[in-house]
Design goal:
The complex is a heterodimer of chains A (252) and B (373). Chain A is an alpha/beta fold and 252 residues long. Chain A has a single domain, classed as Rossmann fold, CATH 3.40.50.970. Chain A is globular and about 50 Å long. Chain B folds into 2 domains: 252 residues, Rossmann fold (3-Layer(aba) Sandwich), CATH 3.40.50; 112 residues, Rossmann fold (3-Layer(aba) Sandwich). Chain B is built from 13 helices and 16 strands. Classes of the chains: A alpha/beta (252), B alpha/beta (373). Chains A and B meet through β1, β2, α2 and α4 of A and α4, α5 and β10 of B.
Chain lengths: 252, 373
């Protein structure tokens, strides 16, 4: 008697993605697919794909998906959730989309405590447009638009999104995870599942940041990119749960 | 094609609504209430003068009817919240005034590209830049040419009275749903602020079609998607062809205009919105002075009533286009008249409203110049 122990989630389409070798997006989308299946919410889930590498999200998810203008994803999610509170709405965004052009939208969606889940994929560069500096690019990191390395004096320091949102009273759950090892990926799934569960339970705004490899625009081999996260990214971006307001409320 | 002789529209509307109460309301509030009566339950907006009565009214009323009012962090956010509500199948609206409408253009382009119905109202003020808070019509180009990027069009309804603002706002939701396309209601600072007696039908005739394309969760069906991205150029060309076919149908079916005494007119004034009201008085004064004047008023400024206006040139000898801008609709009038008759322009800018006498003098000068007595 054989038993399937690993298979494609129903929430993902059986298609080949366009992502580069060693990219983290495929892992994040797999986690979303598994979680949506496990929570049994596929038939009431609506995803929103950003402008950036994940723009073709609607080709990969096997549930309703919309596009959104660059950075406006949290506003689109707000409109959806306000009109149809019974839907499970998530916003999928990269670092340029969320932390640069969409800064106003993410802060205010968080500050209002919109009952949505935000998936924030931080690989420190703009991938779709060819590897330019993002607000999250590491200090000294060479990109297409920082040929001499990111200089703090010139363009500021890496932006810490969950920490920034933690000061907003109405944000419920904020966490940062990494995608560079099986352990980190298991932790990431646990955090993301909690974020979706909180939305199902009406607990409010949650955001999970994923430190994700981009071998193509870091200019390294895929395996080296995983090490790069340990050595260079984690010292700048500490992992962990920055805020879990519902758990704190229960503990209090 | 809807053609109405002046006054007929109003009388018919009134008799059909004998049960509905006549109230005194400012244009902005009447428009907001009309949207609610049309079934709009989701309004997202941001403060800007002279449309602040809309947000205040929606903030008060939406919770009373089980709807949502949300003050957004920006005009960008507001139009994208409308995008989200429209994507899940709801009737949604936002409004603003000129500088804020510029910010909404990104979202309007996406609404058109993604084929989502929505109603956007522009209570125009003087520009460019921050301009003034006085009334203006200087967003005509932006409104009728598609202020955002890409080849798209949308119906633009330009009411001249508070009653018409109500009627056209209700109609705007139907037009938006019919074509799965945004519709712009083009008001201005005077119309938005002025109080007039108005009948807002309790249960207006409105038709909201089923929306099987909406993102309502994929229970019992294949997943839906809403998108305007087609990376394959041939696929995008096919998408554009589909959109253009829709716009062509709008050009056939959504023309709306009104005329006043043009049958024997030597001089035809062409004006829309508030300025058309001033021009009605101009026609009356000129007729009293023995001048055969008439008025042609586009009610929809896109699609523009080119054919109907062209048909008037057999009798008319000269046209005067009057606008609260530096000359925008005059270009459409010249396209309609095709150089067969002189088309002159008179306008005020910056938020200044012209007087009746001012326009009368312009007409008299024009008639003298053209040798029409």
């Amino acid at each position: 008697m054989s038993e399937a122990v690993y298979q494609m989630p129903e929430s993902l389409k059986h298609v080949v993605t366009h992502y580069c070798a060693g990219c983290g997006h495929g892992i994040v989308q797999r986690l979303i697919g598994e979680i949506v299946d496990e929570l049994g919410i596929r038939e009431r889930t609506v995803g929103i794909a950003p402008v950036g590498c994940a723009v073709l999200g609607y080709d990969y998810f096997n549930f309703d998906v919309s596009e959104a203008a660059h950075g406006r994803t949290p506003a689109v999610a707000t409109g959806m959730k306000r009109a149809r509170p019974d839907l499970i709405v998530f916003s999928y965004q990269g670092d340029g989309d969320l932390a640069a052009i969409g800064t106003a939208e993410i802060i205010h969606a968080g500050n209002r405590g919109e009952n949505i889940t935000v998936i924030f994929v931080n690989n420190g560069v703009y991938g779709m447009t060819g590897g330019q500096m993002a607000p999250t690019t590491l200090v000294g990191q060479v990109t297409k638009t920082t040929p001499r390395g990111r200089m703090v004096e010139d363009v500021g320091a890496p932006l810490k999104v969950p920490e920034m949102l933690a000061v907003c009273d109405r944000t419920a759950f904020l966490a940062r995870c990494a995608l560079n090892s099986p352990k980190h990926i298991r932790d990431a799934k646990r955090a993301l599942k909690k974020a979706f569960q909180y939305q199902v339970d009406g607990k409010g705004f949650s955001l999970v940041e994923f430190l994700s490899p981009c071998p193509t625009y870091w200019g390294v081999e895929p395996l080296e990119a995983l090490k790069w996260i340990d050595e260079k990214v984690l010292p700048e971006y500490p992992l962990g749960v920055m805020k879990d307001a519902p758990a704190q409320a229960e503990g209090a | 094609m809807a053609r109405t002789e002046s006054g007929v529209r109003g009388e018919r509307a009134q008799s059909a609504r004998s049960h509905d109460e006549r109230v005194l309301m400012c244009g902005n509030e009447a428009m907001a209430e009309a949207a609610i009566r049309a079934g709009c339950r989701y309004y997202f907006g941001y403060p800007i003068t002279p449309q602040n009565e809309v947000t205040a009214y929606m903030a008060q009323r939406m919770p009373e009817v089980g709807g949502v009012f949300l003050q957004s962090e920006s005009e960008l956010a507001a139009v994208n919240m409308v995008f989200g509500a429209a994507a899940v199948g709801a009737r949604a609206m936002t409004s603003s005034s000129s500088p804020g409408i510029s910010l909404k253009q990104e979202g309007i382009s996406y609404l058109a590209g993604c084929e989502l119905p929505a109603v956007i109202a522009n209570v125009m003020r003087g520009g460019p830049g921050l301009g003034s808070i006085g009334p203006s019509q200087s967003d005509y180009f932006q409104a009728t040419r598609g202020g955002g990027h890409g080849d798209y069009r949308h119906v633009v309804l330009a009411p001249a009275t508070v009653q018409e603002l109500v009627d056209l706002t209700i109609e705007a939701f139907d037009v938006a749903d019919r074509y799965r396309n945004p519709v712009l209601v083009l008001s201005d600072g005077v119309l938005g602020q002025m109080m007039e007696p108005v009948v807002i039908p309790e249960h207006p005739e409105t038709h909201e079609p089923p929306k099987p394309w909406a993102l309502t969760g994929c229970k019992g069906r294949e997943p839906n998607w809403i998108k305007s991205l087609y990376l394959d150029v041939n696929e995008l060309e096919r998408h554009n062809a589909k959109l253009q076919a829709k716009y062509a149908q709008m050009e056939r079916d959504e023309v709306r205009y009104d005329t006043l005494r043009i049958e024997d007119a030597d001089v035809v004034l062409v004006a829309f919105g508030m300025v058309a009201r001033i021009c009605r008085s101009v026609v009356r004064v000129l007729r009293e002075r023995g001048v055969r004047a008439g008025l042609f008023r586009p009610i929809a400024v896109w699609p523009f009533p080119y054919e109907a206006l062209r048909a008037t040139r057999g009798r008319a000898r000269v046209y005067l286009v009057v606008e609260m801008n530096a000359g925008q609709m005059v270009e459409d009038v010249r396209l309609a008249i095709e150089g067969r008759r002189p088309v002159e322009f008179y306008g005020r800018t910056g938020g200044v409203v012209m007087t009746v006498e001012e326009v009368v003098v312009e007409v008299e000068k024009l008639l003298a110049k053209e040798g029409v007595s």
